[in-house]
Amino acid sequence: MTDSPPWADLFGHPEPYPEQADGIDAAVDAAADGGFLALEGACGTGKTMLALTAGLDRVRDPDSDFERVFVLTSVKQQLRQFETDLRAVNENLPSDYDPVSGLTLVGKADVCPYARENRGGIDRENVYERCEGLRERTRNLVGDGGATTTANLVSEARSQQVGLMDSGSAGPAGGTAAADSGAPDADYLSVDGEPTPYRPDTEEYDDVEFCPFYAGFLDDLPEDGEPAEAVPFDVTELGHVDADELVRLAAGHGSCPHSIMGALVPEVEVVIGNYYHAFDPVTTGTFTGALLDDSTFVVCDEAHMLEPRVRDLVSDAVRTRASATRRTSSRASFSPSRSRARAPSRTTPPSSAASWRTRT
Fold first, then answer.
1. Residue-number span of the structural domain to which 193 is assigned
2. Does some domain include residue 238?
3. Cβ-based neighbours of 334, under 8 Å, separated by 6 or more
4. 59-73 burial string, b = 16+ CB within 10 Å, else e?
5. Are 73 and 117 members of one domain?
6. Are residue 78 and residue 119 in the same domain, yes or no?
7. What are φ and ψ of residue 297, in 5° steps?
8. What is the DSSP track for 59-88?
9. 76-108 pLDDT, tens per residue?
10. In the predicted model, what is the mean pLDDT of residues 222-250?
11. How many domains would you assign to the chain?
12. Confidence of residue 345 (pLDDT cuts 50, 70, 90)
């Protein structure tokens, strides 16, 4: 009886196909050598689980320098597949293993509480412009020479809830109803049916509009410490956090989901995003730059689509900088085959499999 490979406990299904096992071993070896691996296989052959397993094996190996897996996808359908497979990994981990922490990166339109509910004059079309303006005004209110503090802004924004609680009544966030007290029901912003501590629209201080969620995040930031200390939940206990869960946990606490997402980026074991998160100069300069180093195991899904998708993003930079500054420090790359070769899927008997092709 052969011993199980070191990565067996991290594989999210009872048994890998032989071709999957070969691919995982090849990816682990390529990463250990500081190299790259291009792996091709037909749809349904388990490339997603293969890539996650190999990356997690490197991340969880105490003798490895890898600290995280960074998944780059070209379309949302593939992003969802990585989310599904990561959940499968966590569901099938041995009981004495800690969950694999993961985070899906999305845009502001997907996590801004106001944009999701079309409140505060913010929608999916203008969320970026409105967000930047609100953040700047919020920082101006509390910065050097500002009119107030983050604690005061948050207190003012929560005043409706506090007033009701003092009168013996509370809205949804307080857990009780006004009932027969005669006090008015609180009017809270709810996101996807979950209450937040603030009213449905943005707040004002001395006639200056500000975002209470961003003020809440700033108020939670330690003066000396890491931004992750402002995260109001323990991501290591939750496993994978997708956009909906992020909004529920962050907005429900009264903090900005997008800012919380940024604080979590360097803290989780698996980050799932798209090509822009690695190649867009603005995004890497302000959001994901911490991921682009030698401690990141990069999985580039549909890698044959990479060049046409990112060409315009980096063209100007390539003319003004050495191209080496635009390379991610990926150690492994995976791309599906567009050939007619067949390999096993979860609905196809292994006997119909053809060989995988790998290049190191």
1. 111-220
2. no
3. 27, 37, 38, 39, 47, 50, 51, 299, 300, 301, 303
4. bbeeeeebbbbbbbb
5. no
6. no
7. -90, 110
8. HH-TT----EEEEEESSHHHHHHHHHHHHH
9. 889 999 999 999 999 999 999 999 999 999 999
10. 93
11. 2
12. very low
Q: Which residues contact 290 (CB under 8 A, 6 or more apart)?
A: 265, 266
| Cβ density class 240-256: b for 16+ within 10 Å, e for less | bbbbbbbbbbbbbbbbb
Residue ranges of alpha helices (H) inside the chain are 18-32, 47-60, 76-91, 108-111, 113-117, 127-142, 150-157, 159-166, 212-220, 235-238, 243-253, 257-264, 276-279, 281-283, 306-320
The pLDDT tens digits of the residues spanning 279-333 come to 999 899 888 998 999 999 999 998 888 888 888 887 765 555 544 444 443 444 5
Integer-rounded Cα radius of gyration of the chain: 23
CATH of residue 79: 3.40.50.300
β-sheet bridge partners, residue 241: 103
| pTM: predicted TM-score of the whole model, two decimal places | 0.81
Gap between the Cα atoms of 185 and 183, Å rounded: 7
Rounded Cα–Cα distance for residues 335 and 338 (Å): 9
CB 172 within 8 A of CB 188: yes
**Measured between alpha carbons, how far is residue 120 from residues 126, 130, 153 in Å?**
11, 10, 17
Query: Which residues, in sequence order, are CB contacts of 136 under 8 Å at separation 6+?
Result: none
SS3 190: strand
